[in-house]
Design brief:
Mean pLDDT: 97
Largest sheet: 7 strands, mixed
Number of helices: 0
Low-confidence stretches: none
Structural class: mainly beta
Radius of gyration: 13 Å
Shape: globular
Strand content: over 45%
Length: about 120
């Protein structure tokens, strides 16, 4: 069974930084893609960043240049470094994994099979 547990969320002022972590336990399952998603109140869940098993990354336009996705392969932890945070980045953030290859880029959440419970990020003006 794949387990994904997020940590590192919290509250920060605009312009600040946070680093989210996702501790992954995947057993024999190979994840072809890992991603970060977020959902704001009244909005659908949207893809933020993606890291494939071959190291290829993708970002939503809204976070390009500010967010960085990475992974510690020894510890099996997925990270999302978020810099220059703005109030519009406030949301519940989720890490996710896909055990099938995906089309390139930021794809819909329905293509991901495994999810963390989510963690809140709040950015104040």
């Amino acid at each position: 069974e794949v387990q994904m547990v997020e940590s590192g969320g919290g509250s920060v002022q605009a312009g600040g930084s946070l680093r989210l972590s996702c501790a992954m336990s995947t057993g024999p399952v190979k994840l072809y893609a890992m991603g970060w998603f977020r959902r704001s109140p009244g909005k659908e869940r949207e893809g933020v960043a993606r890291l494939d098993s071959d190291g290829v990354t993708a970002y939503a336009d809204s976070v390009k240049g500010r967010f960085t996705i990475s992974k510690d392969n020894d510890k099996n932890i997925l990270y999302l470094q978020m810099n220059g945070l703005q109030p519009g980045d406030s949301a519940m953030y989720y890490c996710a994994g896909a055990h099938n290859p995906l089309l390139p880029g930021i794809v819909d959440d329905l293509w991901y099979h495994h999810w963390g419970q989510g963690i809140q990020v709040t950015v104040s003006a």
